[in-house]
Amino acid sequence: xxxxxxxxxxxxxxxxxxxxxxxxxxxxxxxxxxxxxxxxxxxxxxxxxxxxxxxxxxxxxxxxxxxxxxxxxxxxxxxxxxxxxxxxxxxxxxxxxxxxxxxxxxxxxxxxxxxxxxxxxxxxxxxxxxxxxxxxxxxxxxxxxxxxxxxxxxxxxxxxxxxxxxxxxxxxxxxxxxxxxxxxxxxxxxxxxxxxxxxxxxxxxxxxx
Length: 209
Prior knowledge:
By secondary structure, the protein is α+β, with helices and mostly antiparallel strands. Helix content is 48%, strand content 9%.
């Protein structure tokens, strides 16, 4: 069985999250570049994997010979966490695992989701201030999350994990819009985790060969 996971994607926040998770989990993977500008995401070979024509998509070989195709970035991250136990989510202590999942889902639903919706509305004429309200809701959720960075220096708990990956890619995309004086703990966390070797490798995953 070929254990190498195919990662179909390009330089987007969702794709970077998956690449960083693969690096942190120590899982072998191969990037398949999808050029959005030329419409590769709408070609039959990509639509056969992801009918919505989106990225990222992963293709993984299973021990029984089947092929697993996942095209929802958050499901991909959870799958990678299960495939490499203890690397992206804590094991053993159910309380610690529940807290790590809560904080991961907080950034997915309270921060990333409204930001993505605001970005979409901002490109649609005559939508009023809906985009502005959604973007502000995302920012408010970030400001409210400063307390999540504990003594360990991570958001997920005692170790770098899914919540840190979700938060990092999001904060990096709006770095210039943030009032960092309101989130001193997140600022210290941000400057530290962005220099992790696996994070740097993940951000380079889609660079030209």
